[in-house]
Design a protein that fits this description.
about 375 residues; alpha/beta; Rossmann fold; five-stranded parallel sheet; 16 helices; globular
């Protein structure tokens, strides 16, 4: 059985090699000819799953090792009897840790105290739920907004105008949808930004087209948005150099690229493929996992609380390096910037999640120890 897999899926050859013959290809370069005689196709979100790709092929299973599905023509898949799955939740913690690092970085750089601020979280699914947890650990009040969950589950959902008017920080964590009452394409438009509390921090680590880039730049020019943190870009791998120049932190759609977030996407798709094929899953990545680069840290009790948290987070995840690598790319043509964007994603360094670092914090305040724990670090037990 032939299986086509994207090369940037960690352990794809090892996992799917237990099910058939695996051909590894660059995700953006997969062609109709590549998949014509494949039974299974597994990729990440850089591969558009379209009728043009799949017409005339033998593909009967498609899996994306990502949480997003906007790169897939789901009606086509279902109409043609192609079983599909996503890896919902696989990198949710990674995105929440990205947001933690980004906010602490901006706060320390610009003399902002996060504790006591109000954060509006638009979209409270797998990612948004973890973002709420991290924001609470940092001492912020959270205003959640998720109309679908309010209708379906009765979840408390702050009306969007109230959230925008009262939040010091606004962060997006919705899927990209173009139709329906909850369509999110260009949700963040001129009207959206006009309702924002002036001087806010704005974050997009969801999908690029949720934000109207020109509207965001106008909001930044007028001082409505004081600091922007941008991981996902309208039109990526093309991205706007003018937005990059103005934003406080930029990165090439890698918020969910922790080591754990990436390999768990592969694991989840592999297990669903086994279920589809009615074979027991036998592969596990455990024997292949790398040890953490920063297994131990000590909290500095002499620093203010948020500086202590920033030092710990920065030691494990250097988000400033992500920002510097993106800004170091060519300033020339769109084609050059596009190539740079994809190269950064392809060669992204290993980033371990906070839970693999044990922190000694006996001499810190109880509130700081609790914050360290609630951000996800393992706190060393007292002697």
């Amino acid at each position: 059985m032939k299986i086509v897999a994207a090369r940037n899926m960690p352990f794809a050859a090892e996992a799917f090699g237990t099910l058939g013959d695996v051909t590894l290809l660059e995700g953006r370069a997969i062609t109709p000819n590549d998949v014509r005689d494949a039974a299974l196709l597994v990729t990440r979100s850089t591969t558009p799953i379209t009728p043009e790709l799949l017409n005339g092929s033998r593909v009967r299973f498609y899996g994306t090792a990502t949480i997003g599905t906007d790169h897939m023509d789901i009606p086509y898949l279902e109409e043609h009897g192609i079983h599909w799955c996503s890896a919902a939740g696989c990198n949710a913690n990674s995105v929440s840790e990205y947001l933690t690092a980004a906010l602490l970085c901006v706060a320390q750089t610009h003399g902002i105290t996060l504790a006591g601020k109000t954060m509006g979280v638009i979209g409270v699914g797998n990612v948004g739920t973890r973002v709420v947890q991290k924001a609470t650990a940092l001492g912020m009040t959270v205003l959640p907004n998720d109309p679908p969950r309010k209708r379906e589950e009765g979840m408390v959902s702050t009306p969007l105008p109230d959230l925008l008017a009262n939040s010091d920080i606004v962060t997006l964590h919705t899927p990209l949808t173009h139709t329906g009452q909850d369509a999110t394409y260009h949700l963040a438009n001129d009207s959206f930004f006009a309702q924002l509390k002036p001087g806010c921090i704005f974050v997009n680590a969801a999908r690029g087209p949720i934000v109207d880039t020109d509207a965001l730049l106008r909001a930044m020019n007028s001082g409505i948005v004081a600091h922007a943190i941008i991981d996902t870009w309208e039109g990526e791998p093309d991205f706007r150099a003018d937005l990059m120049e103005r934003a406080a932190i930029v990165s090439p759609h890698i918020a969910g690229y922790s080591y754990e977030g990436k390999y768990m996407g592969t694991v989840m798709v592999y297990r669903e493929a086994c279920r589809f094929l009615d074979v027991p899953p036998t592969w596990t990545p455990i024997a292949l996992l790398l040890p953490p680069e920063v297994p131990n840290l000590a909290a500095d009790p002499k620093l203010p609380p948020e500086a202590t948290l920033w030092n710990l987070v920065h030691a494990v995840y250097d988000i400033e390096a992500d920002d510097a690598r993106m800004r170091a790319g060519p300033a020339g043509s769109e084609a050059e910037r596009r190539t740079h964007f994809d190269a950064l994603r392809k060669s992204y360094p290993i980033r371990r999640e906070f839970r693999f670092t044990e922190v000694s914090a006996d001499d810190t305040l109880p509130s700081v120890r609790n914050a360290i724990k609630n951000l996800g670090f393992t706190v060393k037990a007292s002697a």
